[in-house]
Design a protein that fits this description.
Length: 459
């Protein structure tokens, strides 16, 4: 059996009116990834010789968002039907033996199903992916003869009452031999209820030529299409449930598998425990025995083993070291790297800073563009003033320094190793190592001072 050469053609020119959105339908995200990207990835697994996307509405926006190399974009305007869409793609399919038609708004199609559909195909037959639906409304029905051979697809709007009762439907996904496809597509006419060029009419043409049409049945969930926000939300829940199941199978403890959203990838070590309402975006890696409290948002970050992230913490980019504590209510921003045994407490914001081993920033602080040494203690209410209104400057804090509460460190500035900054100081010049530096007006007491007394109201 000679191997077939496949060009994949993803139809994505439709407007998606029912989404009621300025965003083209195929760009709406499912688990953090555009619908179209899901389909592209499934297609890629077939190692196609060419990948085509037929686009129409929001073309530039779609191209920019998908930014996939090795994709050939084909514009279809106006949109005269699925057959017309494939007709636009044909001149660009290159050196292939077959074209596999996919839909940009059918994102859950699995690469395994596509591989099965294509395996062992020949040049003189059509492979059609079908499914059986309790409610087939809106779909093209699969018509079979008395011997069970597929002879045609009839669209809902063109179907007789008897045909409408058929529950086996066209998923839209089909494998066509290029040799015949060109002739069939040229022969399509819009003589139907919708006045469109139906790709589905090629089935009847093949049957009339006594070429085989084989229907491969697949699970309905894999070929569900997205037309509106309700379907999108329902599919999102399905994907999230599946991802949660996979995490639990790997040994992750989820307080509630219905209350975790992974919009990207989440890699977990051993004995990770995740409380409710975690949202993960991008690539998140959790080391062994990491514990995540309720209501956290983690984006593109790596959390070292044995670290405890407490409730309502937001970590966006960066690396949290091992055996550390973060939160509750901490905000870590891009460019932050904390070493082992750091404590980042409540209402602490850290941006683009390196915090070395064993340092503590426990309460109400902003640390930005800073390099903090080992075993440093940063008191409550400390602010690094990193921005002068035009430029950002760095703050450097040496090992074992102690910053008293409510201090402002005006960058660029360096706090010497082992030095102490007195509480309430505004530090504008470097502080010498090992010494106490403070900037504070002297405390005075007015002996015998009396508080004002409230005057009695005049009658
Ligand atoms: C199509 C099938 C139907 C099948 C159903 C499965 C035809 C004639 N009908 O019907 O048998 O049961 O899908 O969901 O093929 N598109 C273009 N250009 C166009 C028209 C459509 O790119 O000119 C794209 C759409 O963006 C979409 C796909 O093709 O991704 C299907 O189009 P749609 O109009 O939804 O087809 P249906 O009427 O649902
Ligand atoms: Ca449709």
């Amino acid at each position: 059996m000679k191997a077939i050469q496949i060009a994949t053609v993803i139809l994505a020119a439709g407007k998606g009116t029912r989404m009621r959105s300025a965003l083209p339908k195929v760009l709406h995200p499912l688990a953090g990834k555009p619908l179209l990207t899901w389909v592209l990835e499934a297609a890629q697994a077939l190692e196609p010789v060419k990948q085509l996307i037929v686009y129409g509405h929001g073309g530039e926006q779609v191209k920019a968002a998908i930014a996939a190399d090795k994709v050939t974009w084909v514009e279809q305007a106006p949109q005269l039907g699925t057959g017309d869409a494939v007709r636009h793609a044909l001149p660009h399919v290159g050196e292939c033996s077959h074209i596999l038609v996919l839909y940009g708004d059918v994102p859950q199609i699995g690469s395994g199903t596509l591989q099965d559909l294509c395996a062992g195909a020949d040049d003189d037959s059509i492979r059609l992916l079908t499914t059986v639906l309790d409610n087939p409304t809106g779909y093209g029905r699969i018509i079979r003869d008395e011997r069970g051979h597929v002879t045609a697809i009839v669209e809902e709007k063109d179907a007789s009452g008897e045909q409408r009762a058929i529950k086996e439907v066209n998923t839209g996904i089909m494998l066509l031999p290029l040799k015949h496809a060109k002739n069939w597509i040229e022969a399509l006419t819009p003589a139907n209820a919708q006045g469109e060029y139906y790709l589905t009419d090629v089935i009847g043409m093949a049957a009339a030529q006594r070429l085989a049409v084989s229907a491969h049945n697949c699970a309905a969930a894999e070929v569900a299409g997205i037309n509106d926000k309700m379907q999108l939300a329902a599919m999102e829940r399905e994907v999230q449930q599946r991802q949660a199941n996979a995490l639990m199978q790997q040994g992750v403890t989820l307080a509630d598998p219905a209350r975790i959203d992974v919009r990207g990838s989440l890699l977990c070590g051993e004995d990770v425990a995740i409380d409710v309402n975690l949202v993960c975006e991008g690539e998140v890696i959790l080391g062994d025995r990491v514990s995540i409290g309720a209501n956290c948002v983690l984006r593109n970050c790596h959390i070292g083993s044995d670290t405890l992230v407490e409730a309502f913490t937001h970590i966006d980019g960066g690396h949290i070291g091992e055996n550390s504590r973060v939160g509750p209510y901490a905000r870590i921003r891009p460019g932050t790297h904390t070493a082992e045994e750091a404590h980042i407490g409540n209402f602490v914001e850290i941006k683009n800073s390196q915090i070395d081993r064993g340092s503590k920033i426990n309460h109400l602080s902003y640390v930005g563009d800073s390099t903090v040494g080992k075993r440093v203690n940063i008191g409550a209410g400390t602010i690094t003033c990193n921005y002068d209104g035009a430029n950002k400057h760095r703050t450097i804090i040496g090992d074992d320094a102690f910053i008293g509460s409510d201090s402002q460190l005006v960058a660029p500035v360096e706090i010497g190793a082992g030095s102490t900054v007195g509480a309430g100081s505004t530090i504008t010049k470097d502080t010498p190592a090992g010494e106490l530096t403070l900037s504070r007006s002297k405390q005075i007491t007015i002996n015998g001072w009396k508080r004002p007394v409230k005057q009695p109201k005049k009658a």
